[in-house]
Structures are given as structure tokens and as C-alpha cells.
Design the sequence.
């Protein structure tokens, strides 16, 4: 099956240039249809047929993720994503800052192409469980003018400010009230891929506000079976209801007995919040 490829158009950074090089390579070797982000933004109908018939790969150059944001803006179904800067780090390759791809940069293109040698059918996410409801009882941590809520029952936390709530063999995860207040208005959510197997503390999505960016790190290991589709259009749900409607992902657990040894209950996490709130004021 051929794929459609939407690459970063950033020609001001080496990683953006390599995103474009990879897209051209996939066109030459796999017959992929390369989608120009400028034309897509100005005339989406131009690529309507390709996007309807082929799985879409989005290639971002750097963590700004301009290509992914364009796909989200246009409501496109994204089947796979690749971030060049992360691929370079994982491969241990320093591509430098030149805007002309050098030998190391092209080596990275080879590595990324090899990882995309075959197109698999996209994984369809399962329906989120209906049994998870927003909490009603909270502990509170007050610091200066801020009041941070922490659910006192059924929730566990990692020190990276992400929570988990387990029901049966599934867990719902998200970020804490401390995160949403610290970031202020969240304007963008980048989900993880449904179907991906993860280890404890792997990234399960990223959040962006006008103030900062954050990678959410999973409190548990397992397989991502669903992501919160509402956050694509309404990322502000994380601000409005971080422990309920603002959840990030649902995970089929693989080793919760081991995972929970590194998690904190509400009392212990409240001390982490107190410390971080104090540090943020200095």
C-alpha cells in the first residue's frame, strides 16, 4: 500500500531540510505521494483523493511540529508520525546546523527510510471505557494565590506530574492540576499512536500552551488502546477538567504490580507539588 507524506516545510533548520529529503526519498523508492504543506493549507481539495485513499505519514522536523499542527487544523486522519530531531537523537547522529544535507544527515535519512520500509494497516483505536468518571473528592495544596487539586482516592501519580487511574486491566492517564495551572491555557495536544506498546515513563503525548511545552510520561507500562480524540479540537479540556474529561490516553496494563512501586499516592504527591510550587516562585 502506498502512503501519502506530509513533511515539515521548515527550510531554516537542518531537521526540517531532512524531513523534506526523507519525503522525497519515499516518493522515489516507495511511490509515496508528497503533500506540499503550503498547497494543502491553501487548497485542501487538491489532495482530497490521496488523503482519502492512502495512509498519511506526517514528518516533523523539530518539536514545534508544524506539519502535525497543520494536519490537526485541517482535521486529517494521521496514521503515522515521525519527528526527525528525535530520530537523530535515537540514532546517535549529530546532523549539524548546515542547511545543506551532509553525509551524516543523509545517513539519518537512510535510517529513517529503513524504519519505514513497509506500510502497515493503521491501527484502529478501541472505544474508551465508559466506567471512568471525574473524581469528586480532592486534597488541596495551597501556595501563594494558587490552589492545586489532587484526587484523594483511586489515583496514583509519578513525579513527572502525570496521574493514572486503574479499573480492571485498563488504566486512564493524564496530567495533574499542577501541570495545567503551570502551563496556563493549553492550545495544542499531540497524541501518541494507538496500538503502541509502551514502558513506564515513555511519552504518551505532548501538550503546548503559549507559555511552555510538556511531554506527558506514562505512569504505567502496557499498550495504548485509545486516546482522547476530543483534545484535538478542545485541548482546553485539560485546563477545565484535568482528572476527567481532559484525560490523555487509555492503556491496557502489562505489569502494574511492578509499575506501582514507583508511583505516589495523593499524600506523597502533594509534597512533590508543594516543593515544585515553591521552586517555581524563585
Sequence:
Amino acid at each position: 500500500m502506498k502512503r501519502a507524506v506530509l513533511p515539515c516545510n521548515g527550510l531554516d533548520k537542518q531537521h526540517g531540510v531532512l524531513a523534506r529529503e526523507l519525503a522525497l526519498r519515499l516518493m522515489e523508492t516507495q511511490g509515496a505521494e508528497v503533500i506540499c504543506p503550503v498547497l494543502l493549507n491553501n487548497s485542501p481539495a487538491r489532495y482530497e483523493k490521496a488523503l482519502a485513499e492512502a495512509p498519511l505519514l506526517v514528518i516533523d522536523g523539530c518539536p514545534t511540529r508544524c506539519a502535525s499542527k497543520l494536519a490537526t487544523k485541517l482535521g486529517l486522519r494521521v496514521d503515522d508520525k515521525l519527528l526527525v530531531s528525535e530520530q537523530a537523537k535515537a540514532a546517535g547522529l549529530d546532523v549539524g546546523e548546515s542547511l545543506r544535507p551532509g553525509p551524516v544527515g543523509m545517513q539519518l535519512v537512510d535510517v529513517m527510510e529503513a524504519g519505514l520500509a513497509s506500510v502497515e494497516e493503521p491501527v484502529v483505536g478501541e472505544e474508551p471505557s465508559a466506567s471512568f468518571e471525574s473524581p469528586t473528592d480532592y486534597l488541596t495544596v495551597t501556595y501563594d494565590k494558587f490552589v492545586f487539586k489532587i484526587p484523594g482516592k483511586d489515583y496514583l501519580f509519578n513525579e513527572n506530574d502525570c496521574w493514572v487511574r486503574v479499573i480492571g486491566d485498563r488504566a486512564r492517564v493524564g496530567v495533574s492540576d499542577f501541570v495545567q495551572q503551570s502551563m496556563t491555557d493549553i492550545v495544542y495536544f499531540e497524541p501518541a499512536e494507538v496500538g503502541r506498546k509502551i514502558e513506564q515513563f515513555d511519552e504518551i503525548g505532548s501538550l503546548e500552551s503559549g507559555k511552555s511545552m510538556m511531554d506527558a510520561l506514562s505512569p504505567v507500562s502496557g499498550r495504548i488502546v485509545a486516546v482522547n480524540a476530543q483534545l484535538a479540537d478542545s485541548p482546553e479540556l485539560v485546563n477545565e477538567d484535568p482528572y476527567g474529561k481532559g484525560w490523555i490516553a487509555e492503556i491496557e496494563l502489562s505489569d502494574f504490580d511492578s509499575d506501582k512501586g514507583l508511583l505516589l499516592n495523593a499524600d506523597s504527591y502533594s509534597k512533590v507539588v508543594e516543593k515544585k510550587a515553591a521552586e517555581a516562585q524563585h
